[in-house]
Specification:
Beta-Lactamase, TIM Barrel, Alpha-Beta Plaits, binds magnesium ion, 23% strand, single chain, 8-stranded mixed barrel, alpha/beta, 46% helix, 20 strands, binds ligand C2E
C-alpha cells in the first residue's frame, strides 16, 4: 500500500518523474532551445494539465487594464478537458508596456481539491507562461496592436509602413495618395448625435475603402482624419466619394446623411524616386492645408509651389512665440463713425505684425495661427494691449470710446473663456462697457451652445458682443435668432458699390439685413465703407455706424489718439 502511494499516487514517484520530465521540456521550449511551435508547447501544457488535474488552462493578453475589465483581449486555450470546471488559480502580470497577461487554471467541479504540491507546481507553470508571453509573444502582440487604433481602424503607422514597403520596391509611381478630413462632421454629431456620427464615419470610411479598390488602403490618423492610397484607375471613384456620398447613420431606420471630405491629394508621378515616407506625407499634408486655408476648393491636388507655402506655415509657427514675447504684434485701431453726426463712435482693434522692418497684415498669419491654438494666445495678447491703452487714455483724462476685439472661434473649446476675458479686463481696471467682443460666423464648426453660453456670460457682465462679417458665413439667420448679440457687423460684400446699384441683389439684401438688425434691437455696423455714395446708402437705410477706408484705415495707436482728441469727422 505504502509502495503504491509512493510510486503511483498523485504526488508519487512516477508522477514526480513525469512532472520533472515535462518541466524540462517546457523550459526547453520556452527558452527557445527547441524548434518552437505553438502545437508542441500546447501538447506539453496539455500533458501537464492532465498530470496536475487541471481541467482547463487559459492564457489571455489584453492591450490595457481597461480592456481587461471589459474582457476584450486575445485568449489562448492550451488545454480543455471538457468537464465542468471553475477558475481557481490565476496569475496576472501588468507589463511595463501597460499590457496585461493572465494565465488561469480551472479546477474540475467534481474533483478533490488540489494538493499543496499541485498548487505550487501549477503556479510555477503559470508564472513561466506569463513571463514567457511577456518576453516573446508580447512583441508580436505589441506590433499587431500598434498597427490598429482603439476603434479597430488601421492607423498611421500601418500606412507609413505600406508607403515604405511600396516605395523601396519602386511601386509607388502611378499611385494616388491623399490625406482627408470629413466635412461638417461636428454638424452631423450636433444634429443627429455622437453615436450616429460614429456610425457615419465608419460607413464613410468603408465607402472610401471600397472606392479605393483592391490595391487601396485607408487608415485613420485620429478622429475624423484619414489617409489613403489607391491606384490611378480607382482615383475617379474615390473623388466621387470625397465630393459627397450618402452614408447610413442609423442602422435601424437606414436614414442617410451626405458626407464629403476636404482632401489633399498627391498623384505620384510614374518616374517618382522615393526618398522616404516623409516626402509623401509632406505633400499630402501641404495640399490638404492649402485647401483648408484657402477654403475655396475642398479637394486640392499637390503642386510644387505648395511646398513653399508649407515651409512658410512652419516658419510662422516657429516665429510666433518669440515674436509674442518681444511684443512684435501691434494694435491698430480702425475708427467706427456715426454717419448721422460724423462723430467717432468706437473702434476695432486689428492686429499687425512688425517683423523685420515689415508690417505684416493679419491675412498672412492669422489663418496659420488658427491651425493650432496659437491664435488664442494672440487674441488674449490683443485684448490685454487694448485694455492697457484704454486704461492709459482714461488716466490721461481723454474721452474713451468702446473698442472691439476680434476673437477667433477656436476659443470656443476653452471652457473658461469668459473667466479669461474677465481676468484680463479687470486686471487692467477697464469698465466692461468699453469692450466689445467680435466673433465671426464664418466657420462651420459651430459649437453653437458654447457660443450662446459665452455671449450670454459676456453680456451679463456688461460687455458688448458683435457678430462679425455677417452674411458670408454659415447659418446666419439661426445665429442671430438664437443668440442675443448687441451688434451686427454687415460684411462689406453686402454693401452696394454704387449709389445707382439700388436694385441689385446685394443692395436689396443690405436693406433687409439692416432692417432686420434694427427690428431685433441690434446695433448695425457696415464694414468696408469706401465712398460717399455708400455713406449715403447707410443714412437712407438707417444704418448709423460705418467703418471703412472712407473715414480711416486702421491706424497706429498714436494716430488714433489724435482721433480721440478731435473726434468729429468733417462733414462732406
Ligand atoms: P475683420 O474683423 O472683418 O476686420 C475688418 C477688415 O476689413 C480689416 O482687415 C480692415 O482693415 C478691413 N477694412 C476696413 N475698412 C475697409 C474698407 O473700407 N475696404 C476694405 N476693402 N477693407 C476694409 P485686416 O485688418 O486686414 O484684418 C483682416 C481680418 O483679420 C479681420 O477681419 C479679422 O477677421 C482678422 N483679424 C485681425 N486682427 C485680429 C485679431 O487680433 N484676432 C483675430 N482673431 N482676428 C483678427
Ligand atoms: Mg472684426
Ligand atoms: Mg469684419
Amino acid at each position: 500500500m505504502l509502495f503504491w502511494n509512493l510510486n503511483t499516487g498523485r504526488n508519487g514517484w512516477f508522477a514526480n518523474m513525469d512532472y520533472y520530465r515535462l518541466l524540462e521540456q517546457l523550459l526547453h521550449e520556452l527558452n527557445g532551445m527547441g524548434n518552437f511551435d505553438l502545437q508542441s508547447l500546447n501538447s506539453i501544457l496539455a500533458e501537464m494539465c492532465r498530470l496536475l488535474h487541471v481541467a482547463k488552462g487559459v492564457t489571455s493578453v489584453y492591450a490595457t487594464p481597461a480592456l481587461e475589465l471589459e474582457g476584450k483581449g486575445e485568449h489562448f486555450i492550451c488545454y480543455d478537458s471538457g468537464v465542468s470546471c471553475h477558475e481557481e488559480l490565476k496569475e496576472r502580470l501588468l507589463t511595463p508596456a501597460n499590457m496585461v497577461v493572465t494565465c488561469s487554471a480551472y479546477h474540475p467541479d467534481d474533483a478533490e481539491p488540489w494538493t499543496d504540491i499541485e498548487v505550487q507546481r501549477i503556479q510555477l507553470i503559470q508564472k513561466m507562461i506569463v513571463s514567457f508571453l511577456n518576453r516573446s509573444r508580447l512583441s508580436t502582440v505589441v506590433e499587431r496592436l500598434s498597427y490598429y487604433d482603439d476603434d479597430g481602424y488601421r492607423n498611421l503607422r500601418y500606412f507609413v509602413n505600406r508607403i515604405e514597403t511600396l516605395g523601396h520596391a519602386g511601386r509607388l509611381g502611378g499611385m494616388v495618395v491623399a490625406r482627408f478630413n470629413l466635412r461638417h462632421l461636428s454638424l452631423v454629431n450636433h444634429q443627429v448625435g455622437r453615436k450616429a456620427g460614429t456610425i457615419a464615419i465608419q460607413n464613410y470610411f468603408e465607402a472610401v475603402q471600397s472606392a479605393a479598390g483592391e490595391n487601396g488602403l485607408v487608415c485613420r490618423m485620429g478622429g475624423d482624419n484619414f489617409v489613403m492610397m489607391c491606384s490611378r484607375e480607382a482615383e475617379e471613384n474615390v473623388l466621387c466619394v470625397f465630393h459627397g456620398y450618402p452614408v447610413i447613420y442609423d442602422t435601424e431606420t437606414n436614414d442617410r446623411v451626405t458626407i464629403s471630405a476636404t482632401a489633399g491629394i498627391y498623384e505620384v508621378p510614374s518616374d517618382y524616386s522615393f526618398s522616404g515616407h516623409g516626402d509623401i506625407m509632406d505633400k499630402i499634408i501641404s495640399s490638404y492645408q492649402h485647401g483648408k486655408l484657402d477654403g475655396k476648393e475642398s479637394v486640392v491636388f499637390y503642386t510644387e509651389q505648395m511646398m513653399d507655402e508649407r515651409e512658410n506655415i512652419m516658419r510662422i509657427q516657429q516665429l510666433f512665440q518669440p515674436a509674442l514675447e518681444r511684443e512684435e504684434f501691434l494694435v491698430y485701431y480702425q475708427p467706427k463713425i456715426n454717419v448721422d453726426n460724423n462723430d467717432l463712435a468706437g473702434a476695432e482693434a486689428l492686429c499687425r505684425w512688425q517683423h523685420k522692418g515689415r508690417l505684416v497684415p493679419p491675412i498672412e498669419f492669422i489663418p496659420v495661427l488658427e491651425q493650432n491654438l496659437d491664435i488664442c494666445k494672440l487674441d488674449f495678447y490683443m485684448l490685454d494691449h487694448v485694455c492697457r491703452d484704454i486704461r492709459k487714455w482714461m488716466n490721461e483724462g481723454r474721452r474713451v470710446v468702446r473698442v472691439s476685439v476680434n476673437l477667433s472661434r477656436k476659443h470656443m473649446i476653452d471652457a473658461d473663456l469668459f473667466e479669461h476675458i474677465l481676468e484680463i479686463v479687470d486686471r487692467n481696471h477697464v469698465p466692461h462697457e468699453y469692450i466689445e467682443i467680435e466673433l465671426t460666423e464664418t466657420t462651420t464648426d459651430v459649437a453653437f451652445r458654447d457660443l450662446k453660453r459665452v455671449v450670454g456670460e459676456l453680456q451679463s457682465a456688461g460687455f458688448y458682443t458683435s457678430v462679425d462679417d455677417f452674411g458670408i458665413g454659415y447659418s446666419s439667420l439661426n445665429l442671430i435668432r438664437e443668440i442675443p448679440w448687441n451688434v451686427l457687423k454687415v460684411d462689406k460684400s453686402f454693401l452696394p458699390a454704387e449709389k445707382n446699384d439700388i436694385a441689385s441683389r446685394s443692395s436689396i439684401m443690405f436693406r433687409h439685413v439692416v432692417a432686420m438688425a434694427r427690428e431685433l434691437g441690434l446695433e448695425g455696423v457696415a464694414e468696408g465703407v469706401e465712398t460717399s455714395e455708400q455713406v449715403e446708402i447707410l443714412r437712407k437705410n438707417c444704418c448709423t455706424i460705418a467703418q471703412g477706408f472712407y473715414y480711416d484705415r486702421p491706424l497706429p495707436k498714436e494716430a488714433f489718439e489724435d482721433r480721440l482728441e478731435h473726434h468729429v469727422y468733417p462733414a462732406f
